[in-house]
Amino acid sequence: MGCRWIYIIFIFLFANIVNANSTVNLVNLYEGAKYEKAFDFAIKRANSNDMIAQRIVGTLYIDAIEEKTNDNKLTETLTPLKNGSVLDKAKYWLLKASGQGDVESLVLLGEIYAIYAETSDNELAYHYFRKAHESGSAKGTYYLGLTYLNAIGVKQDIVKAFELFSDAAERGSKNSMRLIGNYYEYGYAGAKNINTAMKWYERAIEKGDHRSYRDMIRVIQYREYDLPDSKEEVEKLTEVADEIEVALCEKYFKGGLYSKAFNYCGYFAREGNLLAKYKYYVFWQASRVENPHYKKSALINLREAAEGGNSLAQIKFAEVLYKGLFGQIKNVDVAQSYAAKALSNLNKKAKNNDIESIHALGVMFYEGLGVAQDLNKGKFYNELAISKGFGPAKEYRENISASLK
User: Fold this and answer.
1) Model-level pTM?
2) Which of 168, 259, 272, 384 can bridge 173 by disulfide, Cβ–Cβ 3.0-4.6 Å?
3) pLDDT category, 405, cuts 50, 70, 90?
C-alpha cells in the first residue's frame, strides 16, 4: 500500500512539473513574439481548461483585431471569423480564464469594453477594472485609476485617481509611477514639484517604462530643473529612448503584427524619433503591405529621417532617388548629396560592428552613391553583413547577382 501511494504522489508531482513547464514555454512563446506557435500551443491547452492558455488565446484574438486588414499568417490563423466575432472569441476565452480566477483576464476584459467601438461600454469597463483591483491586481488598480482620471463609467475624480495610482505604484506598476510623475510635474491635485516628478520618472524607468525617458527629456528641456551638462544628458536619454521604442516596434513586426508595428512606429516617429521614421520605411519595404497609406507614410518618414540626419535613412533615401523607386522622381544629384552626408557616420558605426551600417556601405560602393563605384568593396561590405546574420544583405546580393547577369 505504501508503495502505491508513493507512486501516486510521484505521478501527481510529475504531472504538475510537466504542466508548469508547458505554461512557462507558452508564456515564453508569446512574450518572444512567436505568435503563431503560441496560438497553436495555447488553443490545445485552453481547450483543456488551462487558464493561462485561455488568457493568451484571448489576447491573441485582441491582437488579431488590429490585423484584419493585413494579409499575414497570424491573421489567417486567427480570423476565419467575420463581423466582430474576433472580439466575441476574445471575450469568450477571457471570461473562461477569469472564471477560473485569472485576474489579468479581468483587466483585458476591461480593456475590450473601454477601447473597442464595437463593444464600447464604459460601465462594464469600470466593472472589470474594479473587480481586478479588488482581486489584488496592480494593473487593475492602475486601470481603475484611469477610469477616475478620464471619467470612464464613473464621475471624474482626479484625487481618487491619484490614490489608486499611488497604491498601484507601491505594488510595482510602472505606468502608475509615470502618471504620479505627471501629477507632480503639472501640479494636478496639488502643488508642482519638479524634483519629485523626476524621481517618479526614474522609478518608472527602473521598472522598464520607456515613455518616462521622454518625460525626463521634456523636464530637462522646458522646466526649471537645474542639471549640469543638460545637453549631454538629453542626447543620452534621447538615444536610449529611440532604441527602446524601436525595439518594441520590431518585436511586433517580427511577430507578424504589422498594423501594431506601424501604429507604434508611426506614433514614435510623430514624437520625433528619427530611428522610428527610418524603421517605418524598413518595415514597409520588408512587408509590402498593400495599403497606400503605409506606402505614403513610409516614404514621408524616410525623407524626414534623412533630412534629420539619420545616416541609414540618408542612404535608403539616396537609393530611392537614384533609381526613381516607388514612383519617386529620379534625381541623381540630390541622391549623391544625401549619400555623401551619410558616409562619415556610417564608417564610424561600421567600425563598431553595426551590421546595418556595414550593409549600407556595401550598397554605397555597389551603386556608387556618395563614393566612387567599387564593386569589390561593395561585395566585401555586403558579404560581411551577411556573415553577421543581416538578412536584407543576402537579399541585396541576390538582386545584384540578377542585375549583373
Assistant:
1) 0.76
2) 168
3) low
